Amino acid sequence: MKDTKQNVVAVIVAHPDDETLWAGGTIISHPSWKWFIISLTRKSDADRSPKFFKALNILSASGTMGDLDDGPEVEETRELWIFAYEDGGKQFLPRAVKTEALYKVLPEKTWRKKYAIIKDTFGFNEKSWEADTTPREESFRKFTNSGVAMQWMLNIEKQ
Predict the structure, then answer these.
(1) Contact 69, 41 (CB under 8 A)
(2) DSSP alpha helix (H) spans, 1-158
(3) What residues make up the domain containing 51?
(4) Is 92 found in the same domain as 59?
(5) How far apart are CA 117 and CA 134, in angstroms?
(6) Which single residue of 106, 120, 126, 141 could bond 82 by disulfide (Cβ 3.0 to 4.6 Å)?
(7) Residues 38 and 58 in one domain
(8) Strand runs (DSSP E) across 34-116, as ranges?
(9) Calpha distance 148→130 (Å, rounded)
(10) What are phi and psi of 23, to 5 degrees?
(11) Sequence-ordered list of residues with C-beta below 8 angstroms from that of 139, at least 6 positions apart, any chain
């Protein structure tokens, strides 16, 4: 991998230190890339949290932490959800894929609140792409097997 252009890369890890263990060499090897690293756990851990941000500094990366519980009594995450929308190759506004495992038509009250966030919080006007796109239906691909999820992502990458 050559640094011929500045890539922007997001790395999502379960625990602080995973970024260094599993991707540290790649991150160090590409100092011109913009790295954003997300640790899903231990934001409130007085020991690990500051070490994570120190590691980000050394890696010349930016990032954030979540505080998901990763204790032994917590079951492993068993599902990966990925947005499932189509736009016909930009022929129409994105719309939810009705045939996916997780498809839902939003109740009117829920949709209005979602639409208000787009308009009032993010400041998009009624004629904006974002306001026009705000779907009344939501859909997600659901994976319960990491191998199947990985194969799907590899197939998408080839397209």
Answers:
(1) yes
(2) 18-29, 48-58, 108-116, 129-133, 146-158
(3) 8-68
(4) no
(5) 10
(6) 141
(7) yes
(8) 34-41, 62-68, 80-83, 85-86, 95-96, 102-105
(9) 32
(10) -140, 5
(11) 83, 84, 85, 96, 97, 98, 100, 102, 103, 104
